[in-house]
Design a protein that fits this description.
By secondary structure, the chain is α/β, with parallel strands linked by helices. Helices cover 42% and strands 11% of the residues. The strands form five sheets. It has a seven-stranded mixed beta sheet, with helices on both faces.
């Protein structure tokens, strides 16, 4: 018998009402899937991927899902979203059409295909809502199993809130850590490494996570026997089952068409996870996929007649109908009436969604046609313009693209004619208005963006000397941070007990505890996932990736999830995660790479900061904790033992983000670099001065954002020459830097010599000191490159070296 939260037994009439309500939701969801596929096939929608066949287990999951809980799922969870009241029929179709109005399509305003769900965590000003008063879904992404790492962090946040006291505004994010993070995934995607990495980490951490595997035996056309050992994820995960005095999972298995047993299973799972913070895996098997994988093909191509017949018999809606009839909850006639009404309601919702989507575009079409007709009357190209007008008018369901294409083509034909200026203004206005719907919110547009953190210089005693190890400056600044911000925590490989491999966290775990300064396993993707999930729930995590090269294990999660989060939710969710790593100028192929070009091009949406010393790095951490944006901070690996002055104002001084620093002024050439390589540039600049070449040396400090005050071009206007020195491969970060300086800052107008780059060799750096010297730019390389550029300018003053 289904029971309410207060454990009072329902009357049969209450029970009947609840069951019929559930069935209605499931039937509406199914009709949305069926009609949605037709909309794709008729061309109104671009692509469709639906949740048909998974309706009944999602009803059970929704019943156990409470306010404050979070979902991290995949693109077949439409029934669940409907059941928790966060997706209407009309919104479902608005997503299918890609409606760019966030009021009509609240999941992503058309930025993601339908089936990708989210809830709004933020108010209009970017401040947090009270997440304990609503049901929450983190924003979906398409890459299979990529929802898993974030799920781990969403669950861990409950553990932090339950066990760490004094967290700022904790009441807005958690009620004593009682929230569950609910994950969903298709059975085929459990083959991905991200799934296993997350399952292992959750078992170690013992966090309140309920993981549902929707098992319909196929991954697109590929059967489970090619996907999973023993064809069963629950069978092969038996080693994770909790036993006496061990950590691990509770593993439950249930048939996806059995409504009553599903409800009992989800109630049991929720109780275990919510009360005891024990992760649970629910293997929901014997599910079907009535329309196949997506609207791009038919499952009849790869399922035999026996399987298709079984799927028809064990369709979860059919089985629910038979069960309701068997226990006298509903008669066949009552069920038929629900089915019939669902078809009508979904059709009307589809029609309303389509009208809301297309009517504003038709108005824009009419507006442009009226303007073009006026232009055509006096144009020498009247017939050609009228033809374009006729073609545009003939489109019954126009796209914004088709409207703008027509306008821009007419603009060419109306060159130097009456009406050209008005059309030009219309195109500019229309483009700006429309482009914003597709391009806003890559970075924060609130008052808490990175530019809000104003520069605060480090303060020093009068007799301060450069006698303090850089790692001690980091350590003492982290100490100040953990005191100032109770919601901050840091975790990574060797970050806890030994205080990180370079001792930048020495003594911090002993002082602040194992939850706030934590060791984790060797699993970079889920380290980032922990950070994303906890940041989504109001904490300020710092996720440490031990070395820059290891970031490659996590780059997909950073790129597809964290970097796109604010963009794909149109500013309705944020995860201000700080990622800490170290790199540059070590020795060996896998410990000294500098894949900066790959990183900055893969993670647009995350700031990339490249401090040359630890005081700068500490200042970046202080700045970022006043902001609401994610960032990657790359500390210099060979800088921890170098001496710096000891600041007096730990936790307060702030390095400005997006601002360069001129380390040496000069008149002959501008040298631009960042990180460890700057020390070599400074050394070469001193030696070049001895032969009469005066270099201006600029530290970029951050690559994303890049030189917001355009100080580099100001330098070039004085020196008229540019060399970019970078330890990435040729065409890596140096290409990006040149594009920013030459194209964005228009520095080409000041150049008297060809702008050049000096980079590492195309191969990875070889081992040892000699490997470094012959793989990456050296002080001698820099000297000779600059000298050669000056030789071209004045060969008599600077005769050739070779």
């Amino acid at each position: 018998m289904i029971k309410e939260k207060n454990n009072t037994t329902l009357t049969f009439e209450d029970f009947k009402t609840e069951v019929l309500s559930d069935y209605k939701i499931a039937t509406i969801s199914r009709e949305c899937s069926l009609l949605g596929r037709k909309e794709v096939l008729t061309g109104k929608a671009k692509f469709g991927i639906f949740g048909d066949g998974k309706e009944v287990p999602q009803l059970a999951m929704a019943k156990a899902f409470k306010n404050g809980d979070f979902r991290s799922g995949y693109y077949r969870d439409q029934t669940f979203m409907m059941a928790i009241g966060e997706l209407t029929m009309q919104q479902f179709f608005a997503g299918l059409y890609g409606h760019t109005d966030i009021e009509q399509e609240p999941m992503s305003a058309g930025r993601q295909m339908g089936g990708h769900f989210t809830t709004h965590s933020l108010n209009e000003d970017g401040s947090w809502k009270d997440l304990t008063k609503q049901k929450n879904s983190s924003a979906d992404i398409s890459p299979t199993a990529a929802q898993m790492p974030r799920l781990l962090g969403l669950a861990q946040a409950s553990k932090i809130y339950r066990q760490v006291s004094g967290i700022t505004n904790a009441a807005n994010f958690s009620v004593e850590g009682n929230e569950i993070a609910w994950g969903t995934i298709g059975n085929a995607s459990t083959s991905e490494g991200l799934f296993f990495e997350t399952i292992n980490a959750a078992g170690v951490l013992q966090v309140p996570m309920v993981m549902s595997v929707w098992d319909d035996e196929y991954g697109i056309s590929v059967h489970a026997r090619y996907q999973t050992t023993k064809e069963s994820i629950s069978e092969i995960l038996k080693g994770y089952q909790r036993e006496n005095n061990t950590n691990g999972f509770e593993i439950l298995k249930v048939k996806g068409w059995d409504y009553a047993e599903l409800i009992a299973t989800y109630e049991k799972a929720a109780s275990i996870a919510r009360e005891k913070h024990i992760p649970v895996l629910i293997h929901v098997n014997e599910l079907t996929q009535p329309q196949g994988h997506s609207s791009s093909g038919s499952h009849e191509r790869y399922k035999d007649s026996n399987r298709l017949a079984w799927e028809k018999d064990f369709d979860c809606l059919r089985q629910m109908k038979l069960w309701m009839i068997a226990i006298n909850v509903a008669s066949p006639e009552e069920i038929e009436a629900i089915d019939s009404q669902a078809k009508k309601d979904v059709f009307e919702a589809k029609k309303a969604a389509w009208n809301a989507f297309i009517e504003p575009i038709i108005e824009e079409q009419k507006e442009l046609v009226s303007l073009l007709q006026k232009i055509a009357e006096t144009s020498k190209n009247k017939e050609r313009i009228l033809k374009l007008i006729t073609d545009l008018n003939s489109i019954k369901s126009p796209l914004k693209k088709e409207i703008l294409v027509t306008a821009r083509k007419v603009l060419r034909l109306a060159m130097n004619e009456k009406g050209k200026e008005e059309l030009s203004l219309w195109i500019t206005s229309y483009t700006n208005k429309t482009q914003q719907k597709f391009s806003s919110n890559l970075f924060s547009e609130t008052d808490l963006n990175v530019f809000s953190a104003e520069k605060v210089l480090p303060e020093y005693s009068e007799n301060a000397k450069e006698d303090t190890d850089g790692r001690m400056i980091l350590r003492d600044n982290f100490d100040a941070i953990f005191t100032k911000y109770p919601e901050t925590l840091i975790f990574g490989e060797d970050a806890g007990n030994i205080g990180d491999v370079n001792q930048g966290l020495e003594g911090m775990q002993e002082k602040y505890g194992e939850l706030r300064v934590a060791d984790v396993g060797i699993r970079e993707a889920t380290i980032i996932g922990q950070g994303i999930g906890m940041a989504l729930r109001g904490l300020r995590p710092i996720a440490e990736i031990q070395y820059l090269d290891y970031l490659l294990y996590a780059i997909q999660i950073m790129s597809d999830d964290l970097a796109t989060l604010r963009y794909r939710t149109v500013g309705k969710q944020k995860a201000p995660l700080i990622i800490r790593t170290r790199g540059h100028r070590l020795e060996g192929i896998w410990h000294s790479g500098s894949p900066m070009g790959m990183i900055i091009n893969a993670i647009r949406g995350i700031h990339v900061l490249v401090p040359r010393n630890m005081t700068q790095a500490a200042g970046f951490y202080n700045s970022l904790l006043e902001c609401d944006e994610p960032a990657l901070v790359i500390e210099c690996l060979n800088g921890y033992r170098l001496k710096e002055k000891m600041p007096l104002n730990y936790g307060e001084f702030k390095t400005p983000i997006g601002v360069v620093e001129t380390l040496k002024e000069g008149t002959d050439i501008t040298l631009v670099s960042y990180g460890s390589t700057l020390r070599l540039v400074q050394q070469a600049a001193k030696e070049l001065l001895e032969v009469g070449i005066d270099c201006e040396v600029i530290d970029l400090q951050s690559l994303l954002p890049f030189d917001i005050n355009q100080d580099v071009v100001k330098s070039i206007s004085k020196t008229n020459r540019l060399l970019v020195v970078d330890e990435d491969v040729p065409g890596g970060a140096s290409a990006y830097i040149l594009q920013q300086i030459i194209e964005q800052q228009d520095a080409y107008t000041y150049l008297d010599s060809k702008p050049q780059t000096l980079t590492a060799k195309a191969h990875r750096p070889a081992y040892g000191t000699d490997g470094d010297y012959f793989s990456k730019p050296s002080a001698e390389d820099i000297f000779e490159k600059v000298y050669g550029m000056m030789n071209e300018v004045n060969p008599s003053k600077f005769p050739s070296l070779y």
